[in-house]
């Protein structure tokens, strides 16, 4: 884009040197160069904001994934406490139920956070 703007400005200068009759064309070329620069600044601004938005979404998704993984681990531990013979011997029904309730709450919290962001 910079080379186009530069060529437009060079052409405008060339027209200005041709005399007063070409001044109108020179002004139009200069205005075109200014408009291209303005649009380029707006595009750069939009690209920066788009990149920031993508980064924010990625951070949010990473946080949701972390919460869901933690909830899944709790679910796996609760399930193990209920069906794995070596875990059953070490836990009570109330303990396993409490673990399952905690795992469910963690999963619901992670899913609700994801739904609120959508």
Key traits:
single chain, 118 residues, mainly alpha, 4 helices, 91% helix, rod-shaped
Description:
The chain has four helices and no strands. With 118 residues, the chain is mainly α. It has one domain. The protein starts with a helix and ends with a helix. The model has no long low-confidence stretch (mean pLDDT 83).
Task: Please provide a brief summary of the model.
This protein is mainly α and about 120 residues long.
Number of helices: 4
Our count of domains comes out at 1
Q: Beta-sheet strand percentage?
A: under 5%
Largest sheet: none
Whole-number mean pLDDT: 83
Low-confidence stretches: none
Secondary structure tally: strands: 0
User: Ends: how far apart?
Assistant: 37 Å
- Alpha-beta content class: mainly alpha
Helical percent range? over 70%
